[in-house]
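User:
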Amino acid sequence: MAIHRPLARSELPGDTASLARYLVGKLVVRELPEGIASGRIVETEAYVTGDAAGHGYRGMTPRNRSLFLEAGHAYVYLAYGISYMLNVSSETPGIGTGVLIRALEPLEGIAIMRLNRGIERLRDLARGPGRLAQALRIDRSLDGLDLCREGPLWLAVDDHQAGDIGQGIRIGITKDADRPLRFYVKGSAFVSGPKSLNE
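Assistant: Predicted structure:
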């Protein structure tokens, strides 16, 4: 078992873009009946106030209400009817902003992730938001969960330093697409998207 502790809410930066950068290098921990599965965050995207690409842009709905919770809660949604996406609410209650966790470097429970994904290749287990949700068996049942305390799903920190963090445009969106709100570990094989965007 790796040595890590829950990320305290008081440690979270107060604005969404800063949180997206801050979370790079932190851990996502999933507690499953078979054991712990975890990965290091290597890529995030910020969806800020007034962002036309953000799910909170048009206000709160039953589907997106977790996005409007205090910073550090899970907002899980189903994209295109296919893949779940894990987001972290990012500001004060009532502000619908968040950070999408785009990719992880698998650390613990790799056998569990391989079984969940149905593939062997380590690099592809959690490289992309849909893949990481499948690898960690994340679905809507975890929506609204407090990620700043130990439980079925939580954020953790250890003594690891993230290294050189790159910044660029977000992937797979059409609205507000040119904003540099994606953060990633430069040189990581576990970052999603084309190499041209990750230099």
